[in-house]
Write a structure and sequence with these properties.
The chain has one domain. Helices cover 92% and strands 0% of the residues. The chain has two helices and no strands. The chain has helices spanning 4-40, 45-104. Helix 1 packs antiparallel against helix 2. The two termini are 29 Å apart.
Length: 105
């Protein structure tokens, strides 16, 4: 299983693509809901501007938290990958050492 790490990266990439598509879909839904609220609440002028500004603030905070979580998960994944690579290297070194030792006997 030396190439298992490649599959881990492949899955990571697919998850990132899914997260981007999901995020874009969520933004569309939010924009539609925001437009509905403004229309149904007859919000115009300052009230509409205030609502949009509050929405942007909340979205900005959520995006920052989301990005921080994605970065944290990426770091954890990279650490796992490095550990697996080190274990594989150790296993290969051990097997080579055992082979050399058995040849000496």
């Amino acid at each position: 299983m030396p190439h298992h790490w490649y599959r881990v990266f492949e899955l990571s990439y697919e998850l990132q693509e899914f997260a981007v598509r999901r995020r874009m879909g969520m933004k569309e839904i939010q924009q539609d809901l925001l437009a509905d609220v403004m229309q149904q609440g007859h919000l115009v002028g300052e009230k509409a501007d205030w609502l949009l500004e509050e929405h942007r603030k909340v979205q900005s905070q959520l995006e920052k938290m989301y990005d921080e979580e994605v970065a944290r998960q990426r770091i954890l994944l990279e650490e796992k990958l490095e550990k697996r690579k080190a274990l594989i290297k150790l296993e290969v070194s051990y097997k080579c050492g055992v082979c050399k030792y058995s040849l000496l006997l």
